[in-house]
Amino acid sequence: MHIDIPPPGEARTILPGLRWLRFPLPFAPHHVNVWLLDDGEGWTAIDAGVANDETRGNWQAALTGEAFGNRRLTGLLITHFHPDHAGLMGWLSAGHGVTPMMTRIEWLQARSLWFDTGEEMLEHQAEFARIAGAPEDYCTFLRQRGALYVRSVSLLPRAFTCIADGDVLRIGGREWRVITGQGHAPDMACLYCAEEKVLIAADQILPRISPYVGLHAGEPMADPLGAFLSSLGRYRDLPEDTLVLPSHGEPFRPLHGRLDALDAHHAERLAALEDACRAPATAHTLLPSLFRRPLDQGSLGFGIGETLAHLRRLEAMGRVERLPGADGVIVWRRK
C-alpha cells in the first residue's frame, strides 16, 4: 500500500475516519507518525510528538487546517513514554481539555523520569556505563550532559485514563483492541481493529529496522530482548494481510513476514555476540560485533544498552556468563 507521506501539519487519509500526520524529530529516526481516529465529535490522536517549538507549530497547523477539518481534538492516546510519543502530551491535554489514555506502567515511567533529574541519577547512569566497560571520558560526558527526558517532554498532566492489554476501545464506531508489547518500552500500547484489519503498531513493529531494545540503569537485571521477542508472538494471531501503521516509516504489509524478519535479525545478532564472547570481554569491547561503525558519545549509550540487552538474553538462555572484576567492571564469556 502506497500513500504519499504527509508534509508536517497536513494529513493523509488511510481509510475513512483514519488519518496520518507526520512530524519531524531533532534526532534519529528524524520523524514520528501520529494517527487520527474519527471519534464522532472530533478526532482522537494516537501520540503527541516531541516537545519543541517546531512540533507545536505543526500541531497548530494541523488543528486549524484541513487535517482536522474544522473539528477539534477530543481524545489522546499515548502509546509509550518516550519523548517522541509523549513529549507534548501535557501541552495537548491542557490546551484541549482531554485526559490522555496510557498503560499504567508507561504513565508511571514518564512521571518518574520527568522528576528524576538530580546529580544522583546522573551518577547512577555514569556508574552503569562504567561497569559496562565504557571509558572514563564517556562517564564524564554523562555526568555533564544532564537529564535528557525533561528537555523533550512538556509538563505532564496529573491524571490519566488507564488502558491495559485486552481492553477494547470503541472510537468512532470502530472497536480497537489494545495489544501491548514489551522490550522497546515496558508496556507499549498498540491498537488493532479487526473490522478493518489495521494495526497501529507504535514502535513494536517497524517496517525496516528493529526498534531499539536496550538494558537501562534502572533495571540492570531485566531481559528486555526476551520480553520483546516473546511479545511479538501476540501479533501472530492477526491476519497476514493486516495493514501495519508504524510510528516510524510508512504503512506496510505483510505482518507475519515482518515478524519473521525481526526474529531472524535478533537471532543473527545473538549468534554473533555469543561468538565474540569466546574470550572474556566487556559490553563496550563487544560493540563492534553488533555495530559496524564507531559510535559517537551521543549514541554510545544506546549501543551499550542494546549490547547489554543481547548479553542478558544470552545469559538467560545459559549461553554466556558474567564475570565481575575487582573494580566492578563486568566481562562476559561464552559457556
TrEMBL record:
Organism per entry: Neoroseomonas soli
Name of the protein described by the UniProt record: MBL fold metallo-hydrolase
Pfam families per the UniProt record, alphabetical: B_lactamase-like_C (PF21221), Lactamase_B (PF00753)
Gene3D superfamilies reported in the protein's UniProt record: Ribonuclease Z/Hydroxyacylglutathione hydrolase-like (3.60.15.10), Winged helix-like DNA-binding domain superfamily/Winged helix DNA-binding domain (1.10.10.10)
Ranges where the Metallo-beta-lactamase domain occurs: 31-248
InterPro entries: B_lactamase-like_C, Metallo-B-lactamas, RibonucZ/Hydroxyglut_hydro, Sec-metab_biosynth-thioest, WH-like_DNA-bd_sf
SMART domains: Lactamase_B (SM00849)
SUPFAM superfamilies: Metallo-hydrolase/oxidoreductase
